[in-house]
Amino acid sequence: MSINTAEFLNPVNTQTWDNGRHLVRCVKVIQETHDVCTFTFGMGQPVLFFFKPGQFVTLELEINGERVMRSYTISSAPSIPYSFSITVKRVPGGVVSNWLHDNLRSGDQLAVHGPVGQFNCLDYPADKVLLLSGGVGITPVMSMARWWFNTDSEVDMVFAHSARTPRDVIYSQELEYMSSRIDNFKLHLICERMEVGQGWSGYRGYLNRHMLELIAPDFLEREVFCCGPTPYMRAIRALLEEAGFDMRRYHEESFGATPVEDIRQAEVHADEAEILEAELEQLETVSVSFAESGVSTEVIVGTNLNEAALAAGVTIPKACGMGICGACRVKVSGKYHMEHNGGITEEEEQEGYVLSCCTRVASAMEVDY
Predict the structure, then answer these.
(1) In what side-by-side order are the strands of the sheet with 156-163?
(2) 198 φ, ψ to 5°?
(3) Which helix (H) or strand (E) holds 40?
(4) How far is CA 320 from CA 44, 78, 119, 325, 341, in A?
(5) Residue 365 burial by Cβ neighbours in a 10 Å radius (0-12, 13-18, 19+)
(6) Which DSSP string do the residues of 332-346 spell out, in sequence order?
(7) Which three-class secondary structure state does DSSP give residue 88?
(8) Best CA proximity match to 318, nearest among 309, 327, 330, 331
(9) pLDDT averaged over every residue in the chain
(10) How far apart are CA 301 and CA 287, in angstroms?
(11) How far, in Å, CA of 225 to CA of 125, rounded?
(12) Which of 46, 36, 135, 7 is nearest to 319 (CA)?
């Protein structure tokens, strides 16, 4: 007997990320090491952040009164699709990296452009891969590893990461966890040197031919994805070429200047956004007040209720963020448009309740929160 899946699959109303300019909000800041932080971003309404593991986004920031564009690889995986993360190392004298570490906090909003980039694992499928990274160059290959891990892929992964010292190993606990959970993920950490009082049982020094043969005896049979500082990748290329590796199966991403065409496109989008924002200032605005909190804010008609709350400094708890769980249910008075996915009953709607994550303001509104 054939089964029609359409009869029992309930489609979810959501939006999908595509290349362009997007306003996102920082939802989490994680201190990975003494000089590396991960920043996680999301939106007030359900948006599927799909990208190819290894791709990057360009942040649009205003620093000292000037617009600054800077690109960072997405370190999370699209297998966790309703947010995305970048991982940033504080660089001495680095204008953007220091600004992010010192100023970007949970709740802050900024614009991002993307995702873009040719360096990714989906365009080069393989049964066996070797992931090589140095320093913060771990971010794109970590995105790949997370993707394969979260999707229960059978891809045979060997992950070899090089850091200066043990305290500079990014994602160390997560990497150990992944290594302990599945047989097809082999982890090898290499530290250039030790500091006083540090213990280390992994590889020491720099990755060389002998070390690589111990880490991945079959490296000549693997697809290689590599990212790190320019000297690191130069050494890896020389090592592989000397070993007779088929360099058509070698893929790399360098952490340097953003490609000119991507910056140009981001600048165009940013200029268009400034014009649009000027036009939006002429649109109808309404007041949204939060009774229990005693605050209110002016928003443009059509603003997501969660975003309105954050603009007023109020955080409405949510879980799924897509109108399924009902955790963000609040009582309101006023006109609105809501597109939920089953997280609220008709009786609750009749009583004046909405799910804030998927509700757009249509008139002046009071929220019982």
Answers:
(1) 203-204, 185-191, 156-163, 128-134, 223-228, 250-254
(2) -90, 140
(3) strand 36-42
(4) 11, 16, 31, 6, 11
(5) buried
(6) EES-EEE--SSSS-H
(7) strand
(8) 327
(9) 89
(10) 9
(11) 11
(12) 46
SS3 353: strand
CA 10 to chain centre: 27
Q: Nearest to residue 338, comparing CAs of 313, 315, 306, 312?
A: 306
**Radius of gyration from C-alpha coordinates of the chain:** 24
Residue 31's beta-bridge partner residues?
A: 37
Alpha carbons 238 and 236: distance in angstroms, whole number? 5
CA distance 170 to 161: 9
pLDDT digits (tens, 9 = 90+) for 20-75: 888 899 999 999 999 999 999 998 676 889 999 999 999 999 999 999 999 999 99
Q: Within 10 A of 346 (CB to CB), how many other CB atoms are there?
A: 7
Give the global pTM.
Answer: 0.82
Residue 188, classified by CB atoms within 10 Å of its CB into exposed (0-12), middle (13-18) or buried (19+), is buried
What is the distance between the alpha carbons of residues 326 and 357, in angstroms, rounded to a whole number? 9
Do 132 and 141 contact (CB within 8 A), yes or no?
yes
Q: Tokens 């600048």 label which residue?
A: 267
Which helix (H) or strand (E) is 176 found in, with range? helix 172-181
Q: Which residues contact 298 (CB under 8 A, 6 or more apart)?
A: 285, 286, 287, 288
Contact 129, 121 (CB under 8 A): yes
Token pair belonging to 202: 């992994």
